[in-house]
Specification:
homodimer; 186 residues; mainly alpha; 10 helices; elongated
């Protein structure tokens, strides 16, 4: 199958989510997903390493958005302001597809293995964010603290948005949670 | 486990750490550890589920210390003050054995699998801490935010203490990092 598949990655992702919810994650195979999406398994592996990978694409886009936002923050912005800009930029990346995010979260919440992978993903984002802050001249210790707490804010805000506890757009929810952290820490 | 107690669990732990550092984690077996500690493999399994488990004992003691400290905080204490008390109480539990903590960290840092397990442990602590805050009447959303950021502070402080970047006792280092978070968020 050398032919170009229009948005095969997106169709495979939708098919995978449907099947994980219908049959359960464990009982769904790569060939089930490929069949549902109308492509071959070979096409599947062109886009994703395995069925778990379908749920963890897009990390690079988040990293890039955060890194750019930190670099673009005004020189006088403090570490936490730069973190706030990074979180909103990452939120913009995810904001368009709440229905998908919600289904994905439902699948992840039922599997320890997937939850671990999500923790690793978040730890990776914190690492990238800390690196971006250091590139602005924030000392390593402060950069790590600001990045780790920032990612904690992001996770809490993301959960509120996905479950509907937090109303409105994801960047807006993240902004509210960030404000709450400032108020709690005051 | 009291540090004064020359019990089998403690001896097995010391033996495991020695061997993981000498031979590497992957090349060390349960029977190597038991032999070094002068006990049988059967005794090993009375204390630990597997060799990885040796590095992840003591979670319950941390959870108990944090839960008690949150419950014992004065009624007028805010969520973040209660979190501060919990982190210091958890730090007291670990504070007596920096040499062990440092070796353990060195082993964990070289293995993705162990790092993932550590992330899961920390996520579990955040969950317990959030529950303790809710028992004080802190609303769920604020409890989760305070707990997640609190555990981020704990991880950053713990790393500084283990690596020697943070001087003095672990509770003291955690207190400093907590103060930095307040300053950063101000």
């Amino acid at each position: 199958m050398g032919r170009w598949e229009p948005d095969a990655a997106g169709r495979l992702r939708e098919a995978a989510i449907e099947l994980f919810l219908e049959r359960g994650y464990d009982l769904t195979t790569v060939s089930d997903i490929a069949e549902r999406a109308g492509v071959t398994s070979r096409t599947f592996f062109r886009y994703y390493p395995d069925k778990r990978g379908v749920l963890f694409g897009g990390t690079e886009a988040l990293e890039t958005a955060m890194t750019r936002a930190v670099a673009a923050a005004p020189p006088e912005a403090g570490a936490m302001d730069a973190v706030g800009a990074a979180l909103e930029a990452a939120a913009e990346v995810l904001s368009g597809n709440r229905a998908y995010a919600s289904k994905r979260q439902a699948i992840i919440s039922t599997h320890d293995d997937l939850q671990e992978r999500e923790l690793v993903k978040m730890a990776g984002l914190a690492h990238v964010l800390a690196g971006a802050l250091q590139s602005r001249g924030v000392p390593e210790t402060a950069a790590r603290l600001a990045a780790e707490t920032g990612i904690a804010v992001f996770r809490v805000g993301f959960d509120r948005w996905v479950t509907g506890i937090g109303r409105g757009s994801l960047p807006g929810v993240i902004r509210v949670v960030f404000g709450e952290l400032r108020a709690l820490s005051a």
